[in-house]
Amino acid sequence: MRRFKWSFVGVASAALLAAAVGRAGHAAANPGSPPVTTVVALDPAAGELPESITSDGHGNLYFSLVSGSVRRINPDHSVVQIATVPLPAGASLTGIKVGPDGFIYACSDSFSPTPDGAFVWRISPATGAVTQFASLDANGFPNDLAFTEDGTLFVTDPFLGVLWKIDGAGHATVFLSDPLFAGNPAAPAFAVHPFGVDGIAFAKGGHELVVSNVDFGRVMRIDLDDEAPRARVLVEDLRLQGVDGIAIDRRGTIYAAVNTHNRIATIDKHGRIEILAEGAPPFDSPASFAFGTAGNDKKTLYVANFAIVNVLGGQPAHPGIVSLPVQTPGLPLIGDEIDDD
Questions:
Q1: Following DSSP, what letter does each residue of 43-84 receive, concatenated?
Q2: What mean pLDDT is reported for the chain?
């Protein structure tokens, strides 16, 4: 299979890929949508494209830029540069989470296996020191991640169609490989490459993983208590095609960032879909979510507007972090800490 060099900030690469991603549509704004607030506006010309956002237990938010930058949004919404990950040429920074040790972990990947860009990085929020935590298959595309309380890390790979499991020492093994994780070469959501399993979050007190499949608009459950865990489809729907990051609230409602359609959807425990909000603006290729964690902010959902479709399509882009009110707080992000109330 042909590999593409992915440079989010290069004008030449943007022109090369514009036609490939240009088929994603723009939805009309939903009159019944909750109000959306811009928290951080970023500059696409400077390569400031936020692929992932997460939170800690102290009211801070962290987001990754594909260029390698990691930034913190303080509770007062001021922004601080934390670190810059030394990415190999052609690589980009993707999913980001805070581990149970308080360090920040971020995935990197590349559309080319040479040089290798498939890593997980460990970042000190206090000093900004960056170390390589784990090395994965160079042919893959490690994308999103979720922790258990003991430091075990699960990482999705939409190119290889696998779920990695990484122990506290950074040793990686394939936890699950499933045909349901594969992308769809016949009708990829991003025509530049098929994308399979992508978003990931814990549910049911850490006993279940929920994952998304970009190309098929598929959301799956994995019961970790099963003797032989496997993926089970909760829902598959064209309205979810392009689903990227996911998040789950305390009622078990799944939030889905439908990247290629500028759409935020919700999925209940029975697989019923509702379109919570859509339209560009205020959404520009939403890629990831984080619930607020402090006080009244617990009923705020933060969204990373990746803006990649417009950037690569040569259209006006508005990357940044936006927020909207929700009715129910989110689940804590670390698996064994999850409360099912």
A1: -GGGT--EEEEEE-TTS-EEEEETTSEEEEE-TTS-EEEEEE
A2: 90
